[in-house]
Write a sequence for this structure.
């Protein structure tokens, strides 16, 4: 006899015999039967199956034991399932009856919940997109961009083409480097000529980033000159449904057409990529576009493209950053001294690429970024709207359930337990929220094209179909159902039958929770309404604020390379102007060079003024620019063909510039009289002011209008070296 | 009153026959003897459970009392079943219906047999 002490006295000395019942059988029975019934029933089994349950050696005998046990358990299981199904079916029946009985209530509830859910799904899809930018590359956490900070300019993720090779040679922690630049160039194939976003990149670009190739080989696509990679869209734009591999198209570079052979087609670049282009060629073609090789140092080479680097997984970007000043001195110290500048005035840095979209750093070749605050605000609004719908649902349910007091009373009289009543209420609200979630998803899908149009994003609802999202939706459903059905359920099921039928009971109104919910709802609603009013005012400001120029009936035609930096471009523009001016509907055609928008500036210069640096924006304009845009000239004169020197030396400045430099009689003053150009010798620019115009917005409305000069001097995206 | 099913009828009658010794194991053995058909403990358990259910405030057809634990049963207590008044009434009612349904069976069977032969 076993002499061990058994934990429970009830089980007695023979308890060890019960191990004869297979483990799984006990497991099932314990779950199917109440504790008491399990005791009796397992006892009956021990006795009745006495012989059957003895340990059998042969596999067949053991198998027979299991089959016999299943034959015992299955009927119990089936009866359980059957009666549960009957109960649930009854609950659903009652729910459907209730929905039908209180049509308006149910409609308000379901639609309210569905609309806010649709809203929630849309906002979340937006926020999710914002937060997912550039993270689809497997190496994303290790990809950095070099940044540069010079004088008082904010740091920017731009780089000089000469930097890549020395960086890779100097630092073993840099696994690979790829330079990337995106510009706009005319592309011709057959009869189609279009300006396209042309990207130039080093061959390692495709091992750094995960852009999917539909055809072609990533490692061979741009390893030689005159090869071009298209995207799905640009391929169909130029070649239709035909396979473009091996086909030839011509790209204008520095106003010369060059033939390129298509070596690869990329799958559509995702909307949440900061890198967007139509065509991609080798970075070696940079010299074709600029007409020169960049061979100088950091001072006489322009910073304009982006340099991406992949950092070794074990090395820290901060350590590398700390070594960069030494690197600059080692490789470019000579160059700085040549231009009488201090190497410390320029500092290189690193910026993680995946942080770019929600960061604050600029990069000319990449898509613009967003403020992270906006995403958080939208996320907050999405949650608030959902909470509102839930609390609204709870209030309506509580209010309605007072109409159902008699039903609850009747259920209690015939023996409906508290648990069953709670289950009934929760099942009802789960069913309602299920309908609402389904309707909400349908609404979101229907509203999606408009939403995409409105946000200017290419969002996709595909993410709704993956497991985490479905889990989230189901979780949302359960949460809404449980929260909104749970409270009324607990309150109502706890009422006394006598109270219910005495008719003295009053639901709602006096209830603390009802009041709290109402206050909560009103607070949130006021908050939302106030928020919308502020937004309306903002939009109003954006649309009504006087820009300082007349943009009615104004059409901007981007001509890119033509006007940028050489005379042949200017000649092409002149021809275009002459053609357009033949049309009587067109009152004026003027050219300008603007970064970002046509009314933006084309370049900036820092001037030293009273121990501080003043950044002055340049904008290259044409004769007749002021008249065409109706910008008032306050003092002096406009550019005129009668003064040929206007092209090189004359500028018209804005009021902000006059104020900033404290000029008493600005007209006729030369810049050298009041400010010192900080640029190196040979690049300095000291024009004479011939007129003053009223300020106009040339940058974002978020910014105050800064000092600006209009000139006529050809000046590309880069600083021009004086002859 | 709802009529008993054949199975319920058999279970109730078995409990009556077994008098003070009606519990799951004996009921099963008796039923298997009488019908010479194998019966699962699970099925029997479910029927007994349903027969002991109270319906709308009325008594169930069977009730039970707890007996001694024995070593034969792995130290578990025993649950003896007995038929209630309601159970007896249900059996009587079922029997009445059966008697009236079976009334004149031999005569009718002979008649049907003859009709078949000719």
């Amino acid at each position: 006899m076993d002499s061990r002490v058994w934990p429970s006295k009830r089980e007695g000395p023979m308890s060890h015999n019960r191990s004869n019942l297979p483990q799984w059988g006990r497991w099932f029975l314990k779950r199917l039967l109440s504790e008491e019934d399990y005791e009796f029933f397992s006892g009956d089994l021990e006795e009745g199956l006495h012989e059957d349950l003895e340990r059998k050696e042969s596999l067949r005998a053991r198998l027979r034991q299991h089959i016999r046990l299943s034959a015992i358990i299955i009927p119990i299981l089936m009866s359980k399932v059957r009666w549960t199904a009957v109960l649930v079916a009854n609950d659903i029946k009652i729910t459907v009856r209730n929905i039908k009985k209180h049509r308006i209530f149910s409609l308000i509830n379901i639609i309210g919940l569905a609309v806010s859910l649709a809203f929630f799904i849309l906002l979340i899809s937006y926020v999710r997109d914002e937060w997912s930018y550039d993270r689809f590359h497997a190496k994303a956490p290790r990809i950095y961009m070099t940044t540069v900070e010079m004088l008082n300019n904010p740091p920017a993720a731009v780089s000089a083409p000469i930097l890549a090779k020395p960086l890779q040679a100097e630092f073993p922690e840099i696994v690979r480097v790829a330079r990337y630049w995106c510009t706009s160039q005319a592309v011709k194939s057959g009869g189609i000529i279009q300006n396209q976003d042309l990207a130039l990149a080093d061959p390692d670009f495709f091992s750094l980033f995960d852009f999917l190739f539909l055809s072609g080989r990533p490692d061979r696509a741009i390893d030689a000159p005159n090869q071009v990679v298209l995207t799905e869209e640009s391929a169909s734009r130029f070649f239709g449904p035909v396979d473009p591999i091996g086909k030839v198209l011509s790209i204008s570079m520095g106003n010369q057409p060059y033939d390129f052979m298509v070596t690869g087609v990329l799958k559509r670049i995702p909307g949440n990529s900061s890198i967007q282009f139509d065509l991609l060629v080798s970075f070696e073609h940079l010299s074709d576009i600029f007409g020169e090789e960049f061979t100088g140092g950091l001072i006489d080479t322009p910073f304009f493209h982006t340099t991406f680097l992949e950092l070794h997984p074990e090395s820290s970007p901060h350590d590398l950053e700390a070594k960069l000043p030494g690197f600059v001195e080692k490789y470019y110290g000579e160059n700085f001294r040549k231009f009488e500048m201090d190497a410390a005035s320029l500092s290189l840095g690193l910026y993680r690429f995946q942080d770019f979209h929600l960061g604050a750093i600029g990069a000319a070749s990449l898509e613009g970024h967003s403020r992270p605050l906006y995403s958080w605000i939208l996320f907050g609004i999405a949650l608030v709207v959902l909470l509102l719908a839930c609390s609204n649902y709870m209030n309506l349910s509580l209010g309605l359930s007072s109409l159902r007091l008699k039903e609850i009373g009747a259920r209690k009289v015939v023996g409906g337990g508290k648990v069953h009543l709670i289950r009934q209420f929760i099942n009802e609200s789960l069913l309602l929220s299920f309908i609402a979630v389904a309707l909400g998803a349908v609404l979101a899908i229907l509203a999606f094209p408009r939403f995409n149009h409105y946000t200017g994003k290419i969002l996709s609802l595909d993410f709704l179909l993956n497991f985490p999202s479905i889990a989230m939706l189901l979780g949302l459903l359960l949460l809404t159902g449980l929260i909104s059905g749970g409270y009324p359920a607990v309150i109502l099921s706890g009422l006394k039958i006598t109270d219910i039928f005495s008719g003295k009971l009053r639901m709602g109104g006096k209830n603390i929770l009802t009041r709290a919910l109402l206050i909560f709802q009103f607070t949130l609603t006021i908050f939302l309404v106030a928020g919308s009013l502020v937004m309306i005012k903002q939009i109003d400001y954006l649309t009504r604020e006087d820009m300082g120029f007349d943009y009615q009936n104004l059409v901007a035609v981007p001509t890119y390379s033509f006007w940028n930096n050489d005379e042949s471009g200017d000649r092409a523009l002149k021809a275009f102007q002459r053609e357009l001016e033949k049309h009587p509907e067109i009152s004026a055609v003027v050219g300008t060079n603007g970064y970002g928008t046509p009314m933006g500036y084309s370049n900036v210069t820092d001037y030293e003024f009273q121990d501080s640096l003043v950044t002055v924006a340049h904008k290259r304009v044409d004769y007749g620019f002021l008249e065409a845009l109706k910008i008032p000239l306050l003092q002096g004169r406009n550019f005129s063909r009668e003064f040929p020197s206007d092209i090189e030396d004359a500028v018209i400045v804005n009021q902000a510039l006059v104020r900033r430099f404290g000029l008493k009689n600005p007209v006729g003053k030369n810049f050298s009289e009041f400010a010192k150009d900080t640029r190196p010798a040979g690049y300095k620019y000291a024009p004479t002011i011939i007129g003053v115009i009223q300020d106009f917005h040339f940058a974002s409305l978020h910014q105050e209008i800064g000092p600006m000069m209009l000139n006529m001097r050809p000046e590309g995206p880069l600083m021009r070296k004086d002859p | 009153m709802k009529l008993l099913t054949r199975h319920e009828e058999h279970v109730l009658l078995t409990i009556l026959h077994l008098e003070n010794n009606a519990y799951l194991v004996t009921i099963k053995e008796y039923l298997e003897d009488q019908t010479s058909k194998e019966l699962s403990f699970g099925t029997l358990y479910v029927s007994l459970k349903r027969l002991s259910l109270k319906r709308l405030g009325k008594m169930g057809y069977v009730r039970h009392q707890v007996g001694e634990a024995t070593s034969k049963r792995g130290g578990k207590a025993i649950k003896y079943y007995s038929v209630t008044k309601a159970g007896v009434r249900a059996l009587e009612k079922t029997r009445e219906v059966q008697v009236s349904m079976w009334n004149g069976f031999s005569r009718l069977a002979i008649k049907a047999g003859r009709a078949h032969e000719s």
